[in-house]
Amino acid sequence: MKLTRPLVVLDLETTGVWIEKDKIIEIAMIKILPDKTKESFHMKINPGMPIPDRISDLIGITNEDVAQAPIFADIAKDVIEFIKGADFAGFNIERFDLPLLRREMNDASIQFDWQDSKVYDAQKVYHLNEKRDLTAAFQFYCQKNLEGAHSAMVDTQATLEIIESQIQ
Fold first, then answer.
1. How far apart are the first and last CA of the chain?
2. Residue pLDDT, tens place only, 118-127
3. What global pTM score does this model have?
4. In terms of DSSP H, where are the helices of 16-113?
5. Burial class (CB in 10 A: 0-12, 13-18, 19+), 72
């Protein structure tokens, strides 16, 4: 990988998936510099709201684990300094991590505009190589080839069969 700018690989663990409301619980970043050296930043964060049990069960972080951790506003300047001038990479980063991070930065009164950076979203690349469309879902759930895809009735019938299979 030839870099002309730093690349920050980023992942957030959060209280949920609602970008406008949920809060960061953990942030991890690895910055790769053009000379190939790496720096890392990793912190647990007190979200200032209860972590739902289903989230704690999923990520293994409890309310007690973050009770003494800083709130995001206390570390926001450190985060922005770490990512300054960087491009970004992650899995589903463009639809989730970066928008949620921007919202948290805004809540901390810090401007963060990632649209001027290059974004390498591993999920998008994965979906280009491993199709995640109705035809693929029909094959996965119903073990059938979808004949006549993109006909509204064929697609509707296939969707119904997928839902029935999912329910089973």
1. 45
2. 999 888 877 7
3. 0.79
4. 53-59, 63-66, 72-83, 98-107
5. buried
